[in-house]
């Protein structure tokens, strides 16, 4: 009885596509001037995105105490028997936070895909 | 029949399940990487559940409801901030932190700035934050076992400490991941079911929450004061007191007039049905004040308090070592981001229920507002509200009370266990790799030491409300590790001297404030109340101070920037596909 013969495998030195890709990748990996500029661009873009979305969240959330302080009469607005300030802080804030987070994840991943595409020199 | 045997059984079941699930993980744990970062193999779903399970501590499970019952609208900022912290973490920290390939926060500091000395400072900060955080968890466990089963206060800390040490020593990060994920769902069930059951009761109840009067006692109650307390009596009718009041002995007499009274420990108050509840001085007394925003949480300068709570909780999450270390267990930066997003969803779902319970507590068990032990509200609510006569009209509901009480108890014990085990893994990870030699055996030794030391601290330290004391820990985290991470990830100009100065300045400022607050606070009347409120809510001052120190000192020492900062930045920010990442591990 013989053991089953292992499947034949093709051995190649490198992917054809990979060979073409390597140059810009190496620029980033080796931190040449071009590579560094690419990374700086990525960091700036991601930071800008994070700061913009943080500003949106802070404006949406942290303005509430200021508004409630300036216009105490807002407290008396009621929707379905619940005061507006309670409705906002106990329920409505949470979907806003999640929405901002979800938008960030989508845009940040998009930014990274764009970066990889530039580095790999795809059209 | 009382619910005590059932409650005890539920507590035991939760504890056994914890050890049992932990044991499942122990079989999988072999290497140092398993113990420190679960070999970086945890997907977003599991990790998000584990992070939520770990994060929802006693402060969230018990404390939030207590604070809302006591202070009303402004206390809602705690759950909002606890959740929003993950948005900050997602935006500024999650993916680059994971891509750094570090295995603890001190390791990240060394990776970024190349200084072994800074690593030691960061290690110290991590251990201090985690220990500060463990103490209220242990105290909460003591309170819970005392409230539920009448056990002595020391039993809770010892029991929780022992279980947690066993799990962490046995399987480290890999083991507690399963435990914490399980505990999130246990806690959610344990708080959602009673909240929904009481919601039906609440909607059928006609008592109003607003109006000029404090909440009204619904059936005759006797309250024993266990520590001296100053109460605000709005309406003396129907209340009799036995014990020392303002230093004079009273024996079954009524308060002479509305006003503030100091009750010595050992006094008992008897409240007739329909009487207005006295509340702890400083808390809003009338229903209208309680419902309105901008009244603060006792003490002066309410707007400052709210802003400081927002800063501490929004930024503090980014500096909690036990949360950060969980992100190292994800396989890559993308998974880390998705984990943070899923955590926001899980926390949003959870926090609906403590808010409801806080409102119900004010309605159904207002006597808790007298003694200041509002933390016990969630534990006592099911039996008090359903068993105590209000729900007696419908007997099937009344028979549910012990079951609900047992469920809540199981959730509470899960809260203590999950958070404590996460904290302990962080302490053990930092100590074993930075003080000892980083072998599995060192991790275990560090876990035993780190789990035992807070027990005497928990018994000796006075206790604030759980959420308040945890809020202070958030302030320390926001003033130390948060600026280190945010500036380290996004600003090339940070130097190791700058980072260390910021850690020391922020840590000392917030640490001193926290210590003062725990040992009794500062006199309210000094300098218009500002020193008192800054000590009670330090973040709005100490966080900018820490950021400023790091930036200024880094600019002054800009010659000592690490030479390979470009490569480090590329590693943190470039997607894994380009193959720049290196996973760091302690040398064995």
What's the layout of helices and strands?
The complex is a heterodimer of chains A (123) and B (588).
Chain A: H1 16-29, H2 33-70, E1 78-79, E2 82-83, H3 84-119
Antiparallel strand pairs in A: 1-2
Chain B: H1 4-26, H2 32-37, H3 44-55, H4 58-71, H5 77-92, H6 94-99, H7 105-113, H8 116-149, H9 155-204, E1 221-224, E2 229-233, E3 239-245, E4 248-254, E5 259-263, E6 268-271, E7 279-280, H10 287-291, H11 302-316, H12 321-327, H13 333-364, H14 368-371, H15 377-387, H16 395-434, H17 440-452, H18 454-460, H19 466-479, H20 481-490, H21 496-519, H22 530-536, H23 539-556, H24 565-573
Antiparallel strand pairs in B: 1-6, 2-5, 2-7, 3-4, 3-6
Give a structural overview.
With 123 residues, chain A is mainly alpha-helical. Chain A has one domain. Chain A has helices spanning 16-29, 33-70, 84-119; strands at residues 78-79, 82-83. In chain A, a hairpin with a 2-residue loop joins strand 1 (78-79) and strand 2 (82-83). The mean pLDDT of chain A is 77. Chain B folds into two domains: 4-206 and 314-461 and 566-576, Amino acid/polyamine transporter I; 221-276, no CATH class. Chain B is built from 24 helices and seven strands. Chain B has helices spanning 4-26, 32-37, 44-55, 58-71, 77-92, 94-99, 105-113, 116-149, 155-204, 287-291, 302-316, 321-327, 333-364, 368-371, 377-387, 395-434, 440-452, 454-460, 466-479, 481-490, 496-519, 530-536, 539-556, 565-573; strands spanning 221-224, 229-233, 239-245, 248-254, 259-263, 268-271, 279-280. The longest helix of chain B is centred in the N-terminal third of the chain and has 50 residues, at 155-204. Chain B is globular and about 75 Å long. Mean pLDDT of chain B is 82; it is low at 389-395. Chain A binds chain B through residues 25, 28-29, 31, 35-36, 39-40, 42-43, 46-47, 50, 53-54, 57, 61-62, 64-65, 68-69, 72, 75, 83, 85-86, 89-91, 93-95, 97-98, 100-102, 104-105, 108-109, 112, 115-116, 119, and chain B through 73, 76-77, 80, 83-84, 86-88, 90-92, 95, 291-294, 303, 306-307, 310, 334, 337-338, 340-341, 344-345, 348, 351-352, 355, 490, 566-567, 569-570, 573-575, 577-580.
């Amino acid at each position: 009885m013989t053991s089953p013969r292992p499947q034949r495998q093709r051995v190649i030195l490198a992917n054809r596509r990979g060979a073409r890709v390597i140059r810009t990748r190496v620029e980033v990996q080796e931190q040449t001037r071009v590579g560094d500029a690419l990374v700086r661009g990525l960091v700036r873009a991601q930071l800008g995105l994070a700061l913009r979305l943080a500003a949106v969240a802070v404006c949406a959330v942290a303005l509430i105490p200021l508004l409630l302080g300036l216009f105490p009469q807002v407290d008396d607005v009621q929707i379905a028997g619940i005061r507006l300030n309670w409705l906002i802080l106990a329920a409505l804030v949470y979907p806003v936070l999640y929405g901002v987070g979800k938008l960030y994840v989508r845009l940040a991943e998009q930014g990274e895909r764009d970066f990889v595409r530039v580095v790999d020199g795809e059209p | 029949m009382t619910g005590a045997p059932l409650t005890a059984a539920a507590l035991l079941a939760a504890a056994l399940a914890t050890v049992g699930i932990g044991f499942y993980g122990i079989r999988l744990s072999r290497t140092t990487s398993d113990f420190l970062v679960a070999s970086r193999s945890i997907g977003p779903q599991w990790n998000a559940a584990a992070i939520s399970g770990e994060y929802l501590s006693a402060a969230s499970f018990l404390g939030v409801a207590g604070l809302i019952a006591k202070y009303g609208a402004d206390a809602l900022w705690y759950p909002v901030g606890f959740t929003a912290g993950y948005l900050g973490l997602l935006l500024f920290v999650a993916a680059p932190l994971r891509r750094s390939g570090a295995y603890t926060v001190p390791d990240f500091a060394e990776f970024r700035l190349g200084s072994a000395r800074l690593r030691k400072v960061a290690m110290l900060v991590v251990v201090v934050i985690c220990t500060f955080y463990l103490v209220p968890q242990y105290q909460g466990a003591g309170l819970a076992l005392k409230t539920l089963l009448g056990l002595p206060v020391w039993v809770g800390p010892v029991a929780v400490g022992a279980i947690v040490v066993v799990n962490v020593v046995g399987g480290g990060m890999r083991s507690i991941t399963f435990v914490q994920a399980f505990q999130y769902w246990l806690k959610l069930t344990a708080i959602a079911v009673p909240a929904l059951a009481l919601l039906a009761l609440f909607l059928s109840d006609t008592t109003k929450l607003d109006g000029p009067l404090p909440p009204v006692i619904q059936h005759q109650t006797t309250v024993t004061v266990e520590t001296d307390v100053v109460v605000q009596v709005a309406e003396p009718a129907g209340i009799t007191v036995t014990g020392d009041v303002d230093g004079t002995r009273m024996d079954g007499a009524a308060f002479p007039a509305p006003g503030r009274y100091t009750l010595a420990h050992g006094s008992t108050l008897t409240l007739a049905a329909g009487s207005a509840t006295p509340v702890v001085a400083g808390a809003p007394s009338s229903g209208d004040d309680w419902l309105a925003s901008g009244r603060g949480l006792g003490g002066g300068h309410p707007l400052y308090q709210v802003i400081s709570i927002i800063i501490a909780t929004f930024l503090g999450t980014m500096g909690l070592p036990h949360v950060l270390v969980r992100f190292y267990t994800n396989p890559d930066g993308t998974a880390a981001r998705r984990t943070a997003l899923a955590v926001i969803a899980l926390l949003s779902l959870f926090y609906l229920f403590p808010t409801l319970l806080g409102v119900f507590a004010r309605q159904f068990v207002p006597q808790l507002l007298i003694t200041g032990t509002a933390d016990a509200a969630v534990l006592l609510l099911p039996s008090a509200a359903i068993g105590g006569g209000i729900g007696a009209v419908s007997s099937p509901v009344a028979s549910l009370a012990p079951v609900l009480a047992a469920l809540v108890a199981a959730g509470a014990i899960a809260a203590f266990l999950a958070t404590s085990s996460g904290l302990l893994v962080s302490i053990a990870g930092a100590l074993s790799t930075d003080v000892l030699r980083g072998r599995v055996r060192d991790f275990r030794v560090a876990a035993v030491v780190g789990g035992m030391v807070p027990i005497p601290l928990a018994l000796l330290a006075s206790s604030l409300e759980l959420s308040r004391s945890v809020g202070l820990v958030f302030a320390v985290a926001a003033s130390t590790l948060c600026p280190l991470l945010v500036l380290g990830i996004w600003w090339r100009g940070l130097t190791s001297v700058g980072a260390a100065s910021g850690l020391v300045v922020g840590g000392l400022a917030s640490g001193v404030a926290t210590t003062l607050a725990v040992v009794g606070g500062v006199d309210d009347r000094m300098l218009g109340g500002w020193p008192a409120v800054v000590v009670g809510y330090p973040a709005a001052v100490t966080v900018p101070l820490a950021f400023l120190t790091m930036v200024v000192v880094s600019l002054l020492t800009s010659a000592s920037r690490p030479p390979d900062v470009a490569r480090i930045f590329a590693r943190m920010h470039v997607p894994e596909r380009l193959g720049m990442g290196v996973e760091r591990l302690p040398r064995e």
